């Protein structure tokens, strides 16, 4: 009788496990990101402080929400909206930009992936200094190459190097940064 009860309990546990959705330990979802038909919503944020010799400290902040779509395995197309502010010493600037982007995600195991993206952005920047203002436009090439950690299903965060160079505009600036991104994904 005891043996029959143990067998029935074992069958019941096996049946529950067979129909239960898979549970992931920490991570184990990196390969789920780059499946065709996946929408990815991210935000890239940069926060920087800079001390120039003989000048006051500058503070800058950037928000860059994006939406990407994996059209085939690993390859994403999307776009990003950028809003940034920089100020200090009586002057400041506010920038708004739009950037179509292309990316390629590579799984590096169960928990890690590498998702470099390249973008071509058009921005408008408004400057204000001691009551005087001006506006300028730029066309820039940007590359952001974060390493992502996938701690749970449909969620990731990451950090990586960035590179931006102005292709057309009054101030040809090239910048190298470290960026942080956080995001989630869902399938259509």
Description:
The protein has 188 residues and is mainly beta. It has one domain (23-187): Porin, CATH 2.40.160.20. It has one helix and eleven strands. It has one helix at 2-19, and strands at 38-51, 57-72, 75-88, 91-104, 106-107, 112-114, 117-129, 132-144, 147-152, 155-168, 174-187. An eight-stranded antiparallel β-barrel has the order 1-2-3-4-7-8-10-11. The longest helix is centred in the N-terminal third of the chain and has 18 residues, at 2-19. The chain is elongated, with a radius of gyration of 23 Å. The N and C termini lie far apart (51 Å). The model is unreliable at 11-25 (pLDDT under 50).
SSE layout and pairing:
Blueprint: H1 2-19, E1 38-51, E2 57-72, E3 75-88, E4 91-104, E5 106-107, E6 112-114, E7 117-129, E8 132-144, E9 147-152, E10 155-168, E11 174-187
Antiparallel strand pairs: 1-2, 1-11, 2-3, 3-4, 4-7, 5-6, 6-9, 7-8, 8-10, 9-10, 10-11
């Amino acid at each position: 009788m005891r043996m029959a009860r143990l067998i029935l309990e074992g069958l019941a546990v096996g049946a529950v496990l067979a129909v239960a959705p898979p549970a992931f330990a920490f991570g184990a979802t990196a390969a789920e990101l780059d499946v065709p038909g996946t929408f990815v919503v991210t935000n890239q944020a940069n926060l920087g402080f800079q001390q120039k010799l003989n000048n006051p400290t500058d503070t800058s902040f950037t928000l860059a929400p994006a939406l990407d779509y994996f059209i085939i395995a690993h390859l994403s197309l999307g776009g990003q909206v950028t809003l940034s502010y920089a100020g200090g010493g009586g002057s400041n600037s506010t920038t708004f930009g739009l950037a179509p982007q292309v990316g390629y995600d590579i799984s590096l195991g169960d928990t890690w992936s590498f998702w470099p993206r390249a973008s071509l952005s058009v921005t408008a920047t408004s400057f204000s200094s001691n009551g005087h203002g001006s506006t300028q436009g730029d066309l820039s090439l940007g590359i952001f190459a974060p390493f992502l950690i996938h701690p749970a299903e449909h969620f990731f965060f990451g950090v990586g190097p960035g590179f931006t160079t102005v292709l057309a505009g009054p101030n040809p600036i090239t910048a190298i940064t470290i960026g942080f991104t956080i995001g989630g994904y869902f399938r259509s």
